[in-house]
Amino acid sequence: MNHKSLFAILAVALLVALPLSFANAQQIQQGYSPRAAVTGTVGQAVNTGAIFMNGATAFAFVITATGGNFNSTTLAVQVSLDGTTFVTVDTISLSTGTANGKFYDDDNKASTVAVNPANFPYLKLVTSAGVGSVTEKIYYSAR
Hints:
Helices cover about 20% and strands about 35% of the residues. It contains 1 helix and 8 strands.
């Protein structure tokens, strides 16, 4: 292969890749909704880290325990304007079950501070402490 052939292949690759990259960037800016699952370490608290809400107005999560139950730990729902400093707006007792969840929107607000956590730019979920042989997993989605 000579240099002209390599250049032609590169040009075609760029013509295909750039529009795809631009389309993906537009999709993220116009309609991206955060959704993921975060699995903690056995016996340790689980923390989703800062979730960028990207204009979402509703948020739901489910937390599960495997290897035992929650043993009365709590889950804190925290919000932030900058993704660095978080304030707790809801504290949920996980009791002794193995699954729990909650949905927030303008009609279903946090109970500790009566706000919709999804209306903040950043949101974070954190459990209070891990339990022995239990692994906690948080599934979340926003729209």
